[in-house]
Every structure is written in structure tokens, then in C-alpha cells.
Amino acid sequence: MDETIIKIENAALKLKKFMIKPANLEIPKGYIVGVQGENGAGKTTLLHMMLGMYDKMKGKIYIDGLDVVKNKTKVKELVGIVSQDRIFYLSQDANGNEKIYSPFYKNWDSEEYHRMLAHLELSPRRRLCSFSTGEMIKYQFAFAAAYRPKVLLMDEPTANLDPVFRDDFLKLLQEFVAEYEMTILLATHLDEDLSRVADYVIDIKNGEYSMREILE
Ligand SMILES: Nc1ncnc2c1ncn2[C@@H]1O[C@H](COP(=O)(O)OP(=O)(O)OP(=O)(O)O)[C@@H](O)[C@H]1O
Questions:
Q1: Does the domain at residues 4-213 carry the CATH identifier 2.30.30.90?
Q2: CA distance linking residue 130 with residue 109, whole number of Å
């Protein structure tokens, strides 16, 4: 039987006019899980719930046994996020960001970070503010490779990637899962990406979410 990495117990949230209704899910460790739904369905909100961002959330979400709302700081080490948000020091290059952030991660692997930057053709000497949206996604991926969170939440990562790199990127996701036993949640509109790499899919519709296995 697979080990559960994310356990959702009746987690629900009300945001003004929008609501995520309670549901129970157990996400097994070491798989790629798609998060699928139309624009505004609540994909980003569900990922943010997993980061413990909403104190008013009802129910519980546990990642690796930790209640995410009560353990926000510890959760940051367990859970990485790749999104369109620019959360790094943009006036600094990748070397500068490594100096600032690496002390916060006890698993930080500088060699892996630089190997992945080179693999993704990102110079460690370029300031992050000069990165395109796609390059910024690649950068966040290199950052995640350096500290290998147990869970990586990806919010529409492929939307701004060119088709050739998108292909490589999906392969990299599969390598991450295989090499690091990472669990990846991939929110996307692109059915094609999910049919290529996802083992499970969480569907969100009308505030309700449920998970199904993708059978080959
Ligand atoms: N802080 C907030 N306060 C009120 N409503 C919010 C807040 N954040 C998000 N919402 C609403 O929650 C709903 C879900 O938004 P969310 O961004 O999670 O959807 P999504 O599935 O990720 O959409 P997209 O595919 O367009 O990125 C939307 O109707 C949005 O307007």
C-alpha cells in the first residue's frame, strides 16, 4: 500500500462569493497529481490551502503528518511552490538568491542547484528581474531541485513555456518524482500535460473537489 503524503480531512474555505466545499482526500507519496478545473474553479486556492495560508480554513490538511495551518514555518521546508508569482530577490542573480535563501533550508544542495541552472540554461550571474516568465518558472524549478521539498505545488507552470521546453519540463517532473520521491501537484488547464504525466487528477468543479486515478 502507498504511503499517504497529503491528507485532507473535510478541508473547506469560504472567500466572499467563492467556496471550496469539504472533502476528504489521501494523496499517495511519489506521484504526479494533476489539479484540474476551469478558470476560477479554485485550483490556486486549493494549493494555497495546502500551504496553510488560510487560518479560517475549516477541517484539516496534513502534509507528512503536519497540520499545515499550525506549522506554517515547517511546512515551507516540506513544500515548494512554482508559480507565476515572483517571490525571489529580483534585483539579485541566482548566486545572490542562493546566499540569501540557502541558510533557511537544511537540505540545500548547492551542486544540484548549479547543475540544474546549467541544465536549464540559466546563467547564475543574471539578475532575476531580466528573466522572462518562462525563465522564472525554470528558475523556481532549479531552486526546488536544490532543497528537494517532499511536495512540490506547481501552479500553471507550463502556460508560458515554449513547446520544446514544455516537453523537457514534463520529463523533468517525472525524473524529480523518480529520483527524489517527490510528490508533485500540477495545476493546469492543459489536459494534454495531465494525460502525459499525471498518475492521479483532482477535479474541482462548483467548489467540489475529488480525486481519481489515471489508468494507463
Ligand atoms: N482573497 C480572495 N477573496 C475573495 N475571493 C477570492 C480570493 N482569492 C480568490 N478568490 C476567488 O476564488 C475563486 C477561485 O480562484 P482561483 O484563483 O483559486 O481559481 P483557479 O482555478 O486557480 O483559476 P485560474 O485557472 O483562472 O488561475 C475565484 O472566483 C476568485 O475570484
A1: no
A2: 25
Ligand 1 atom closest to Cα of residue 47: 18
Q: Closest Cα to residue 50, out of 21, 83, 14, 80?
A: 80
pLDDT, one tens digit per residue, over 158-189 is 877 788 878 888 888 898 898 888 999 999 87
Q: Whose CA is closest to atom 30 on ligand 1? A: 40
Q: Where exactly are the structural domains of the chain?
A: 4-213
Q: pLDDT for 57-86, tens place per residue?
A: 999 999 999 999 999 888 988 999 888 777
Q: Whose CA is nearest to atom 28 of ligand 1?
A: 40
Q: Kindly report the pTM of this predicted structure.
A: 0.90
- For ligand 1, atom 6, the nearest C-alpha belongs to 15
